Amino acid sequence: MRLLALALRRFLWMPPTLLGLTLIVFSVSHVIPSDPARVLAGENASIEQVETLRRKFGLDQPLPVQFVRYVSDVVGGNMGISLYTQRPVATDLIERLPATFELALFAIALAIMLGLPLGVVSALMRNSWLDQIVRLVTIGGLAMAAFWLAILLQLLFSMQWNLTPVQGRIDGWGPDPITGFYTVDALIRGDLDTFLTALRYLFLPMMTLAIPAMATIVRFTRAGVLNVMNSPFVFYQAAMGLPRRVVIWKYILRAALIGTLTQIGLVFGNLLAGAVVVETVFSWPGLGTYAYNSILQSDYNAIMGFTLFTGSVFIGMNLLVDIAQAVLDPRGR
Amino acid sequence: MSQDFTQPISRRGALAGASTLALLPAAAAQAAGRTRYITSNNNPYDILDPHQVFDIGRIAIRLNMYDALVRWVDNPAKLEMWLAEKVDISPDGLVYTFTLRPNVKFHDGTALTADDVVWSMERILTLRKGAYGLFSDVVKPGTTKAIDARTVRFTLAKPFAVFMAVLSELWVVNSKIVKSHDKDNDWGAEWLTRNEAGSGGYRLKRFDPAIGFQAERFEGHFMPFGKGAIDDADFRVTMETATRVLGMIKSEFTTTDGYMPAEQVERMKASGNVWFKEAESIRTFYFIINSAKTPLNDVNMRRALSCMFDYDGFNNNILGGTVVRNPGIIPNPMWGAPAGLKGYTYDIDKAKHYLSLVKEKIRPLQIGAMSGYPQSEQAAQMLQAGAAKAGLEIKIVAEPYTTLAAKLDDPERAHDLIPLWRSAYFADPHNWTGFIFHSRNFKAGNASFYKNARIDELTDQALLITDQEKRRPLYEEASRILLDDAAGIFINNTKFYGPYGKAVKSVRFCPIGDTQDLRWIEMNT
Known about the structure:
With 333 residues, chain A is mainly α. Chain A is built from 13 helices and no strands.
């Protein structure tokens, strides 16, 4: 019951948070002098042509009017028409969603699978050579710019070792969509070749996103484990004669995971935002490349749509994290 | 999501082909005996409608899936009859009567008739997008008539010498199909953004706005294909230059854009996997000078600026000789460019002399460079360095084109100088003179707010005459005046360095669309 109340409370905060986010992004994107109607019309366009487009997209209205109109449209389920693609923004986002989600899910899964055990081992072997190496790698992972890391991986895996393609999501065109996740669709069809091909294409962008994410998870897991290891209940469990691995992986890890879990939620949101750079470098046809093109073209509706979507995912992830924390830690309920 | 072209004749084959190709790597597709040509572009192919866009980036859609009455070919660009087999122009230059070729078919097998041409023109005039600006002054709604199935007549509101040239942008759509997808009187606009209804040499197989499109050769096209013509073509977006270059080196792409920075060209050459088609294009690089502001409204100030730019240093050292010095605004290979035109040279003493003649108080200037375009930013720095030697302070602000463009409606907000390119939309000197320097075009082409009664007169006069040889001296004079008046800082004409994979045997370059017209490319299987 308390969990339900917690979820409801968080859920009620969603609309005002999104409204605030919308206001900030709207103000920032409109305060930069830009003329999407002029860009859309092209350099050979007449004044009349540009004016027609301004009227059509409501760009001739005062900013407060444009904002109120936008918010009321979004509430009504309409995110507007993309100035550049000329299609509903919601349609554009939905079409590109599976590509980005597939990439982000694979990246976060890899980051967790590697990050958690490495964090635990690093804490248990504190100040050992292994701990030092892990520390070096994680600091490097956090410090490296995604753009640079992406190119480095391309040069190494694609050009030097010829193991992966340089770019793209698959060679040519993906399988007819069931879920839109190429790997999942290939498995549903029992098509192992396409599944493996999709994995090869996924590898480099996934690694680029996963390495910094993994670094965060390692750091927080290590800190959490070190903190919990000195707790009285751990001494008690050890004094009771429980095997060391049970104490570590069942009791210490569970308590240490609370902080890490919060970070995993935030990291997943960051993966979606970070996809803008990674997808652009790897020519991955997802939300990130859409956002990148929208920014280049000052496509206000598309920028707002992407931001609202990413914001919603952040909020949704925070909600899930809060619930998970409450489950793991009864004091939070 | 990807979308299949839904015309009845092609559907089954297209679906079968698409699903097969989706599962086969490139090598396997080629092993099946079909050639596959993959273009990687830095511009999204997200709208297929030929009447809603008018840009260079997405020209492959129009060139390959649609036909117009006329078409540009070769270099220097020649206008050839295409859908039309002949044209009669009335002596007053107002009435153009075209006879269409017989037996031209759309991709669904129906005949292309004069009604389709008329409907396509009316659609452009109604949607007011894309190439509308080229026609709006001279073609009024309802004035284009189908005389019979193969004869179409345009009656212009006033003589317009470049009408034939701009007709290359009247892409003819299958009116029956598009009409059947009309939604709320939108002239099929929503449907045609994601589908195709043309007669061009290639027809749509698959389309995904996030990726690009795939097309296959249309064997029913009226113009026979050469031996080695491409069977299947993919056009994909890859925004990142480094990725496009790596993709070329690794043979993931067959070609990419031909205006890469010099160091990237060298990188591809060194790989041994790429060969280059080199050609002088018609794309001039120059500084827009905001002539509405003081002291830039003084010719001596503009001349001084023209003497502060190190043309040789920029063209030969920074750009590694990948461009050609172009002393005037009209590209060298274009008719109307005066022979033997002597441009300004880098001469700081002369710049100081001109500065001493400026009547208004000289203030620090600002260059608005296009961010993301290294050449634009490098040119800005080059001028800044020259100006500093002459004692003139110049500040550089790098902004995206959308931000620069937003300021061009108001001379007070517009930057003092902007380094950019003037691309070729149609091969006529009007594109580089009347369009960008006639005072009628303030806020719509004339971004320098330049006003000169003689330029207005010459370019207006040239639009009234249809005989190219009579127009030539008018543009030559206009070009000389613009240079003498330093209406801009005219720097270079671009060279096209098209990179191609080894499987490509030959390409035919045309500065309108570069080599994106697949018909003229030959490949080994």
